[in-house]
Amino acid sequence: MKPDEKNHRRDFIRGAIAVLIGGATLTAARSRSPRLVWQIDPEKCTRCGRCATHCVLAPSAVKCFHSYSICGYCDLCGGYLRPDAKGRDTGAENQLCPTAAIKRTYIEDPYYQYKIDEDLCIGCGICVEGCDVFGNGSMYLQVKHDLCVNCNECAIARACPSDAFRRIPASEAYLLKSDQEKRIS
Amino acid sequence: MRKKIYRPKEVRNPFLLLSLCFLCLFVAINSYAEFRFPMPEFSTGYEHPAVHTPMPANSMVAWDAVVLIVTLALASFLVLKRRKRREIFWLTIFSVIYFGFVRNGCVCSVGSVQNIMAGISNSSYGIPITVLIFFAAPLIFALLFGRVFCSAVCPLGAIQEAVAVKPVKVPPAVDKVLSVFPFIYLGLAALSVTMDAGFIICQYDPFVGFFRMGASFSMLIFGAVMLIVGVFVARPYCRYLCPYGVLLNWCSKLSWKHAVITPSECIQCNLCAGSCPYNAINEPSADEEPESRTRGARRLGFLMLLLPVLTAAGFGVGGFLKEPLSRMHPTVRLAERVAGEELGRYETTNIESEAFRGSDQPIEELYAEAVEIKDDFQKGSRWFGAFIGLVIGSKLISVSILRKRDGYEPDKGTCYSCGRCFKYCPVKATED
Fold first, then answer.
1. What is the 3-state secondary structure (H, E, C) of chain A?
2. Is B252 on the interface with A (CB under 8 A)?
3. Is the pLDDT of residue A41 over 90?
4. Taking CA atoms, what residue in A is nearest to B13?
5. Pairwise CB contact (< 8 Å): A32 & B48
6. What mean pLDDT is predicted for residues B208-224?
7. Banded model confidence at residue B1, pLDDT cuts 50, 70, 90
8. Burial letters A39-53, b for 16+ CB under 10 A, else e
9. pLDDT, tens digit, for every residue of A64-90?
10. Which positions 185-244 of B are in contact with A (Cβ < 8 Å)?
11. Closest CA to B54 of A67, A143, A121, A138
């Protein structure tokens, strides 16, 4: 084979490969779905605690969200107080949250507001369990998207036992428990 | 049970007790009501705050594609024109810092293979344009200029390049055998993606834990072992595992302009041969042929016939891999766990099985689902086996072909264009 002929053949194969790469890329791209982000479906979440331990970030990008609009503002809050709490006050020994990330403030008799300090929250879901068992379920876990690095494959999603993680469009990046909350945000 | 736990020991506020009783009554009557406690109406005019829902950070992503292409172009320029190992190395350091530590090593081209495979197998899977660029750009550059992506852009390659201080030569035979593993990894990744069992390349990425400064213990150990081995065996991940390297290798073999060791005519001084830690420098062919022509031709003919045999054998053997490979899928693992618990093989339940039992899905449905997935794996693992058979057959053919070379040349497929050999060449570039 002449060198010239060989070069032509190489050019041809190179072109073919380039077409192949382009073809594969375009085939893969045929779905024009919007940019997706990971989120937790609060209805499926079983509060196993893996959100706190399996995120690639430390502390986890999963935080407790509190939908005030569906909160009962109870004095006896299942998400704030330990089941065996000696009193209904802000004493550390009474608090359910391991990092004391829930701030309780008095509003009016007999209502108290509970606010999550996201810097302290580790996303363990202990309060979520408490609020769900004895409360309105206004506390629930969500991926906070200013923290989430949106991994190709979410490490928590892989570890999630209840299949609660799914990808949703980035324009509607949260699965909030109440429609009312959606409107506010 | 619940009430017992939450009953306050002393009730200080009689109003609260009354309201609680009322509430219980309310809940009992309106058993269909969604919330246990009604939302209070505040007399002080308190308005509840909105939930803070920050939007996903978006700005960096488009930049990444730009930075990628600029770095690729710069790497090509350094490798082909400047030919200075030191400059290539500094670009490598930049890539480790930017793509690794700043961007947390995600998304990377190595992992993007899986997105592409997912996009091809599942028509509803959406892929961001950035990921498409991360997949295609290094391959296009490899078609043009060789594996410049590996040389100075890939953060996984770069971190290994930085630790390869005492590289030893791996015997070429060992090198050849180990080079089958990237194909196996690629095949497994394809199987896992098409079967919807997860992105294993991301899962077993050895260095992303360092980039993010946090990973599971086993992954940190794996990464540390890779780095320690990498001190002596340069780039162990790139050479013996990287599945994207398979594609880059193919593209680079056909590259339009590849890095050369000698800027002009090779004088066959043998100085560069020892400089390459990757066995990627091909020596000039000996004057006399190592064996008679007929003997070589006969063997080549035999290997050509062996190729379909090996492929068919792989197809057959692949069927036996159904059971272990199907355990990549979480549903199969869960079904086996639940079945084991039902048979009393385990003393306790685990988190997965508890979550399953807490849901309202019947066990039979889970079993049926798992059986269906296993059937898919039956087919998938056969094709996987056939692919591996084909790869081994092709490797045997490629090692038995004698190519004529006049001087020392980089092996276009396996050369990472790292630039180590440049300074060993005593020949100066001739002015055009």
1. CCHHHHHHHHHHHHHHHHHHHHHHHHHHCCCCCCCEEEEECCCCCCCCCHHHHHCCCCCCCEEEEECHHHCCCCCCCCCCECCCCCCCCCCHHHECCCCCCEEEEEEECCEEEEEECCCCCCCCCHHHHHHHHCCCCCEEEEECCCCCCCCCCCHHHHHCCCCCEEEEEHHHCCCCCCHHHHHHC
2. no
3. yes
4. A110
5. no
6. 87
7. very low
8. bbbbeebbbbebbbb
9. 999 998 899 989 999 999 988 888 888
10. 198-199, 202-203, 208-209, 212-215
11. A143
Q: Does the beta-carbon distance from A153 to B198 stay under 8 Å?
A: yes
Tens-digit pLDDT profile for residues A3-36: 677 788 888 888 999 999 999 888 888 776 677 8
Tell me whether residue B363 is exposed, middle or buried, using C-beta atoms within 10 angstroms of its C-beta: 0 to 12, 13 to 18, 19 or more. Answer: middle
Structural domain boundaries in chain B: 61-261, 293-400
- Going from N- to C-terminal start, the domains of chain A cover 1-32, 33-184
B11 touches chain A (CB under 8 A): no
Whether A133 and A121 have beta carbons less than 8 Å apart is answered as: no
Task: Name the band, by pLDDT with cuts 50, 70 and 90, for residue B25.
Answer: very low
Tell me which residue in A13, A30, A136 faces B35 most closely, judged by beta carbons.
Answer: A136
Q: Is the pLDDT of residue B15 over 60?
A: no
Select from B24, B35, B51 the residue whose CB has the most chain A CBs within 10 Å, as the one to mutate to test that interface.
B51
